[in-house]
Model the fold of this input.
Amino acid sequence: MHKLLAKEPESKERPADRPRRLVVELGRRAAADLGWLVEEEEVNKTTVVNRAIQVYRLLIETQRNGGSIIVSDPKRGDSPLRIVA
Done:
């Protein structure tokens, strides 16, 4: 497993706009995908994770509202993007 290590500060009185730290344990596939994205986009892991959270939230909110997000791929055609529980 690949780990992103960080430590949460002891104080619980943190300003709302202050960055949060998170410890995440990734499986091999997720770690490989994260590494690929970092290299492909030339950004750091934090940026990739922040972007992924934004996309995930948009997808979940869209699904909950009865909508869908369509991925259009020239090789595979159009297909809905769904999160299956």
